[in-house]
Amino acid sequence: MAGQAAAERAAPWPQPLLSDYARYFRDGNRTAYESLVAARQHRLTRAVVMALVPGHGDAGNPGPDCSGLNEWLDEVIDGVYLLCEQSSWSWAAHDDVFVRSGGVVPDRSLPFLDLGAGEVAAQLAWIDHVLGEQIEARAPGLRRRVREETYERVIQPFLERLDWHWLGLNGDVHNWNPWIHSNLIAAALFLVDDASTQANTVARCVEGLDRFLASIPDDGAIDEGFAYWWNGAGRALEGLSLLEQATGGVLDGGLPVVRGLVAFPHRMHIGGTWFLNVADGPARSAKSLPWDMLHRWAVRLGDEPAAGHAAAMMSGTVEASAGLGRVLHSLLTGPGEPAGEATSGPPLAPLTYLPSVQIMTARESGGTEKGLYLAAKGGHNGEHHNHRDVGSVVIAVDGVPLLVDAGQPTYTAKTFGPDRYEICAMQSAWHSVPAPFGLEQGTGREFTATVLAAPDAGNPRLTLAIGAAYGLSPESWIRSSFLDAEARTVTIADRWELSAPPRDAPGQDATSGVDIAYLTAGTPQLQPGSATIRPTGIPGAAQGRGAVLRWAPGSADVVVDEWHLDDPLLAEVWGAKLTRLRFRMPSQSRAAGSFILTVEATS
What we know:
Layout: H1 2-9, H2 18-27, H3 31-52, H4 67-85, H5 97-101, H6 115-138, H7 142-160, H8 176-191, H9 195-214, H10 225-229, H11 233-246, H12 256-267, E1 269-271, E2 274-275, H13 291-301, H14 304-313, H15 324-333, E3 351-354, E4 359-363, E5 372-377, E6 380-381, E7 393-397, E8 400-403, E9 434-436, E10 444-448, E11 450-453, E12 461-465, E13 477-484, E14 489-497, E15 514-520, E16 523-527, E17 530-534, E18 547-550, E19 557-564, H16 568-574, E20 577-584, E21 592-601
Antiparallel strand pairs: 1-2, 3-4, 4-5, 5-7, 6-10, 7-8, 9-15, 11-12, 12-13, 13-14, 14-21, 15-20, 16-17, 17-18, 18-21, 19-20
């Protein structure tokens, strides 16, 4: 962090321009604007850290007049002032200015309170908390300006309006709720001087967090998946901690629901940096995750598996992209005391089942990445950040996924618009699921799975009726996913009894065909009745064992489709391509039939 901060101090600050902002409304591009905004805020975070660390000047040591500190303070006040001058703190993708007026210029009179605005407010709040007096001495009047901007852009809109969708007043509570509310708590505590306004803001935030926590199922599962846990449940935990500290423990964050939330990340762990990535999210964890925050909560709760997992994932470094609040907590508070013997490594549980989202994970041997890993998912297609993935499976060998979920591509205007399911990564056609009558799965809660048999400790098998996901009768298609630790195999068994496609078939026109698709990473090599997949080409994956897929020879024709990845987020995870194996059933099996795929690790 120090080297990058020193290098960029001599360079011009990133400057988001109107042409960048307007691109979202013109061609759907989000990253042109958001990447510049993020670069500006990351630079400011690094400057704050440098100003807090003694001994940093031009030559690494401040002179007797503290000139080194003053130079970093100048960097900080420049960054703070740029944020105050920035026309909008919200991201173009969220601003309603175009919908309201057809304009592409942010409306200062009607600021939009979104994730971006909350992040800026919290960053300024933490800066004021740790450097406020030095900033006032160096740039008198800047603290007042920060308070004015924060009140006008964030606090006032929050207190005066109840129509923000992320409040969850309509019962639909998602990750925006805790993300924004936790940031507003920091803004209220550090930047609001009027006691009544501060109390009202904090009280509204408490109500908002209550709505989020009340929406969490007993098993602690997050339907938005592992990646969004950090900017949903993780933000809620940070908000609870801040409230507890600010009230001297009067508001105690140790709620029963927290225990399930704290356990969720390690339950989604495949191995190494690989995690089960249902919904939007990459299959690999980001470098900037605040594992120390999770570790502190796990230690507090006495959850040794969660504490051990968090401790094993901590890298010992912090990234500015985590956000200033998280960086400061990592640097100034540390991870917390070890919980027993938990820090010996990740738990790598042999079996997990989360009934609220119908997710089973099982591994050949608990406590080790070695061997087979199976994840099977039911759920429904009205989940937050939903992909059409009812009935999908992920299979890994030695901690590396080889039958995969592609995950999250780069966000654009299409991602959250009416054309979302034109994106391959969101379609059931590009997940490891069937296609009865060639159908795409539908969108909404009614396109769902029914659990026919749930797993237990002695039987890691999940059996689902998934016909309703295609608008068919539920039990017209049954899928059973099973990991046999003794035989060292995974079996995916499909059987179906189909009458006729629905007249209003979702997604596309129905055909007479029946396909079963499996999406693979690595390099598949086909032989009659089998395919071998090795982790060749997966960035950073050890070139170890692969997987062998087997099926009854002649039971299906195999069609190979290559998906060449021109999206940088997908390519960063999977490399140049993903490959889909489509098993096309013969005509005599289209009305009723079965198909069994077995998977084992190569020797």
